[in-house]
Amino acid sequence: MTRPVGTPTRGTTNPNRLRRMDRWIAAAHGQALRRSDRPVAVDLGYGAAPWTTLELMRQLRTAAPRCEVVGIEIDPGRVAAAKPYECEGLSFRHGGFELPVAGPPTLIRAANVLRQYDEGEVAAVWARLCGRLAPGGLLVEGTCDEVGRRHVWVALGPEGPRTVTFATRLGSLDRPSDLAERLPKALIHRNVPGEAVHAFLRDFDRAWAAAAPYASLGARQRWIKAVRELAADWPLKDDRRRWRQGEVTVDWAALAPRSG
After folding, report:
1. Phi/psi at 109 (nearest 5 deg)?
2. DSSP code of residue 244
3. In sequence order, what are the beta bridge partners of 42?
4. Is residue 5 a part of any domain in this protein?
5. Predicted confidence band at 2 (pLDDT cuts at 50, 70, 90)?
6. Going by DSSP bridges, is the β-strand pair 68-73/40-44 parallel, antiparallel, or unpaired?
7. DSSP state of 5
8. Is 39 in the same domain as 117?
9. What total of structural domains would you count in the chain?
10. Which domain of life is it from (predicted)?
11. Closest C-alpha among 246, 237, 245 to residue 208
12. Which of 104, 168, 192, 227 is 20 to 30 A from 67, comparing alpha carbons?
């Protein structure tokens, strides 16, 4: 057997930590999963316990009942601990970025995996994982806090990055730029003047401040108003149905880091 590619994560696996990401995946990618002859989703680097993999399977099966889920971990002890939870359509395997699965997966979720890597390593990992995707497949790579209140993730197809999604529990939000601490590795060091993601969060804070009168109607209405203002200057890729969930998705090209 070849040695798995990658290094172990910290392993934080609080239940429901990835619910916002999973909910978005089911909404955005459910149709592609249903169309697939054999929909397979990979949960890459699920951590010290299998809770988030089990939750991913339950969420995906609301959208695609035939979906199979494979949890992959580079730490063999974590795989052994997860084995008792295997059931029909759910398995756990020892591996890393080489993805020890038969055939190309329709979905790869890599949550809180690349945060420990250097920024310069991200593009190669993305390319490797995207190269394994089935036609029409999706890689979702991003970061969240320990209890799942704040997420930012990048969605990529076989051709590369497509969108960036910001998602939050609105009741805990002071201002949108609070999400900056959860930017994925490809963007977190680019939150500085002169970079697009910094300008986006600056404009989002301004729109949020301007929408303050809507706070009397609740945080959701304030968020929706702010996002509507943001849409005048930024290429948003979703609509009010997603905004109501405390989400906003932006075209990757608008936030991509400057070269150099």
Report:
1. -110, 125
2. T
3. 70, 108
4. no
5. confident
6. parallel
7. S
8. yes
9. 2
10. Bacteria
11. 246
12. 168
242 within 8 A of 248, measured Cβ to Cβ: yes
pLDDT tens, residue by residue, 221-238 = 999 999 999 999 999 999
Does residue 148 sit in the same domain as residue 178?
Answer: no
Residues 91 and 179 both lie in one domain: no
Instruction: List the one residue out of 16, 60, 63 whose CA is nearest residue 42.
Output: 60
Tokens of 229: 């203002």
Percent of the chain clearing pLDDT 90 (strictly above): 94
Quote the pLDDT of residue 9.
Answer: 86
Burial class (CB in 10 A: 0-12, 13-18, 19+), 100: middle
| Domain carrying residue 220 | 170-247
What's 42-105 look like in SS3? EEECCCCCCHHHHHHHHHHHHHCCCCEEEEEECCHHHHHHHHHHCECCEEEEECCCCCCCCCCC
Amino acid at 86: E
Q: Quick one: 152 and 232 in the same domain? A: no
The answer to whether residues 231 and 145 belong to one domain is: no
Q: Which of 164, 195, 200, 193 is nearest to 259 (CA)?
A: 195
Inter-helix orientation angle 51-63/19-35, to 10°: 40
Task: Specify the DSSP class assigned to residue 212.
Answer: G
Q: pLDDT of 107-133, one tens digit each?
A: 999 999 999 899 999 999 999 999 999
Q: What is the DSSP string of 162-182?
A: EEEEEEE-GGG-S-GGGGGGG
Confirm whether pTM is higher than 0.85.
Answer: yes
Task: Among 168, 183, 199, identify where a domain stops.
Answer: 168
Asked whether residue 254 is assigned to any structural domain, the reply reads: no
Cβ(129)–Cβ(117) below 8 Å? no
